[in-house]
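Hi all, long-time lurker, first post. I run a small reading group and we've been trying to get comfortable going from sequence to structure in the token notation. Rather than ask abstract questions, I figured I'd post a concrete chain and ask someone more experienced to write out its structure so we can walk through it together at our next meeting. Sequence below, copied exactly:
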Amino acid sequence: MIAQLATMGTAPTQDQTLDPLPNIVTRKVKGGNIDVHPSEKALIVHYEVEATILGEMGDPMLGERKECQKIIRLKSLNANTDVASLARKVVEECKLIHPSKLAEVEQLLYYLQNRRDASSGKVEVSCSKWCSDYLEKKEKSSKPKDPPPFEGMEIDEVANINDMDEYIELLYEDIPDKVRGSALILQLARNPDNLEELLLNETALGALARVLREDWKQSVELATNIIYIFFCFSSFSQFHGLITHYKIGALCMNIIDHELKRHELWQEELTKKKKAVDEDPENQTLKKDYEKTYKKYQGLVVKQEQLLRVALYLLLNLAEDTRTELKMRNKNIVHMLVKALDRENFELLILVVSFLKKLSIFMENKNDMVEMDIVEKLVKMVPCEHEDLLNITLRLLLNLSFDTGLRNKMVQVGLLPKLTALLGNGLKLLMKRALKFKDPLLMKMIRNISQHDEPTKNLFIDYVGDLAAQISNDEEEEFVIECLGTLANLTLPDLDWELVLKEYKLVPYLKDKLKPGSAEDDLVLEVVIMIGTVSMDDSCAAMLAKSGIIPALIELLNAQQEDDEFVCQIIYVFYQMVFHQATRDVIIKETQAPAYLIDLMHDKNAEIRKVCDNTLDIIAEYDEEWAKKIQSEKFRWHNSQWLEMVESRQMDENEQCLYGDDRIEPYIHEGDILERPDLYYNSDGLIAPDAAVSPDFFNDYHLQNGDLVGQHPFSSSIGVDGFGHPAGTPGRPATAYGYRPDEPFYYGFGSR
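-- Answer (accepted) --
Happy to help. Here is the structure in token form:
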């Protein structure tokens, strides 16, 4: 026994061991889930490696498991790729994917094929339902696109939420490690599924806030990464408290202000060097120095604009709370944004203009924009090749146009011609939608557009047929009214209205609607205005006269004689008819229209009197019998007015005697009253300043086919019509909207 123990206690020989040595290591690979890469066109295959060390007898002695990932990049995947064939190829070549998962791979590839690239600026999504809802929410909002991964932020490493402690440790190292650590955390934050777990990691968030506060001046990439992480949180209102807690918003404003000032210094330096080159173009040293500086400037601007974009977007999200927005305003956010309008990066400009549009609804912010001459900066973006930027710029200009001063400024800087030029394509889309859905409100907007001057009216020529096709009893009356109103606004001399009326058989429709009680007054009035417009064409006027429309108009005039709007528009039709040689005889000899015009010659409505005077003057020139009646009526009226005036003044003079002897200048001086030509003026200034007046003075002029020949003693009736137009170009009387379609559309705020 003692010998046995002694033997056991001796040291082992070379061939002896205390335990048998292991001689087998086994490795087992087990496939796991397959996901899409968060930002690239790639699949991530998760798998598990299990390594086991076997003893001499084959028994497992030690084992270890490790989770791994394999990234399968699909650079050739595009919209035309055959997804089914590609899925088979992936399964065949990747032994980690079991053939039974072919359908799953195909589905994921299809998802990748239809997912927007990160470079397009769209928000990144995963396959989960929660994230799909997030995408839908973002797409429906009117906010700008989310920033894509910026240059310098890409990292050839897939982040894992389980390695957060490792990433946090990197934030305590030098700047390159901090950039790497922040980039890995950003990769996690860009997946909304990870935000809640990141929110619970106070150590990580505190470290990120500290690094941003202390080191943002040392690295643009570092500042951009960290602000982007907090931007991901800012996309959801429930996380805004977190950002406020770490005072990220205030820090972002300081960063933006600093970067804008840096940009000004860069530009000053560049300008100086450019000036030196211009003064000494032969100096190659100066030229190379300028080129080197310019190249460096371009690189700095790219990185700076990435930082500005993500910082401004974070502030825009926080500005959902008006109290937070007010704090931003107190820190001069408007001035910063207007300064940023000088940039050329479309995505940054879209964000800046969107922010300004949101702020512009408050007067204080609008006043700040006025101080910064915002209109001059915005006009440069109209037109713009970038559709989204143009759209949001026009929306901002619309908000600003409610200010009278800014409206005037827009006119001064030449915005209106630019807007008119944009109407071409826009009008096409509006017209297409209005006609498709028979939308009266949209057609009303089109009608308002048609009231602008001739360059805009010409855009409607292509749609005359489409509009005329809507004029029928089959369409809704409200929609027909707007279509008629739009056509009636097209006072274009080169438009062949006769062809339009014949092609779409509009004359019977127009004549039928003139019957009293046949339709609502609004529709009938538009019919009358339409007849006045088409009567500008002499052949069209002749066709209407032959159809018997003039008696129908006279009947309507009798029925609507208390409505000044109807009366004025019907008289304008008569004016157009007597203006043309082809229809003048019909009006004068075959109807009682002149008699009605004489009755209305002294109407209390000034517009009606003006149109009547112009029409009767033409009739008097071409018909001697009616000329005598018109002259007699005018003479009778003016004499009665004169006698009434004299009587009134004499009564006033007698009344003066009742109040003592205070001298009041007498109306009748020592001379004869007939030597007072000023008494012959009435309110319209129609009486000539001659001492003696007889009906013959009306024969001192004559017209030829509506054109003035010779002198007329009073200009307001013939030389220029009542609307400031030459008599040869008939003007449109005021419509129910308070202005003529051929008047300038823009007015001062208090002009009406």
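A couple of things your group might point at:
Residues 284-318 form the longest helix (35 residues).
The chain has a mean pLDDT of 79.
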